[in-house]
Amino acid sequence: MKKSEAGKETLCRRLNPGLSGRIAVTVLAVASVAFLPAVTVAQGVAGDAAAGKAKAAVCAACHGPAGVSVNPAWPSLAGQQPVYLAKQIRLFRDGVRVEPTMQPFVQNLSDEDIDDIAAYYAELSPCP
Ligand code: HEC
User: Fold this and answer.
1) Is the N or the C terminus of the chain less surrounded, counting Cβ atoms within 10 Å?
2) Is there an atom of ligand 1 within 6 Å of 4 CB?
3) The whole model's pTM is what?
4) Burial letters for 50-82: b for 16+ Cβ neighbours within 10 Å, e otherwise?
């Protein structure tokens, strides 16, 4: 197994703990839902993940249908921080960060589109 794959497996094991861990995660998740809207606004990305899913259809060709890429040249986006995702997509759209193959897919996105797409990818699991 390559070193990068071993790292991914460790990460996914941490994210998919045993039963007791699952209960703890569930309790935490339920508790955090109550605070989620406030947190999302505080982070500066208040995207609509459902709308983002439709807008991200064109991204799947490279970043994978569930945001997990199978090509080492294309980063996985699933589970990434929404603020980070939105910032990077804006940088690509505005030509500050350059990736010629991706530029055509992001150049016409509005700020709202970007927040929606970022919210969508942030919700996906990096360990499908
Ligand atoms: C043709 C393939 C392709 C398509 C389609 C594509 N991307 Fe990308 N994307 C890339 C590549 C390649 C990179 C890595 C660029 C680099 O090395 O800096 C990237 C990087 C990114 C990053 C930065 C990830 C990070 O960890 O820094 C984000 C965010 C992103 N893409 C979002 C999108 C979104 C949103 C769409 C659809 C609107 C999209 N991409 C469509 C190829 C693609």
Assistant:
1) N
2) no
3) 0.80
4) ebbbebbeebeebbbeebbbeeeebebbbbbeb
Rg (CA), the chain: 16
| Identity of the residue numbered 44 | G
Q: Is residue 88 lining ligand 1, measured as CB closer than 6 Å?
A: yes
The structural domains of the chain, ordered by start, are 1-43 (no CATH), 44-128 (1.10.760.10)
CA–centroid distance, 12 to ligand 1, in Å, is: 22
- Asked if residue 15 has its Cβ within 6 Å of ligand 1, the reply is no
Q: Which atom of ligand 1 is nearest to the CA of 117?
A: 35
- The rounded Å distance from CA 3 to ligand 1 centre is 23
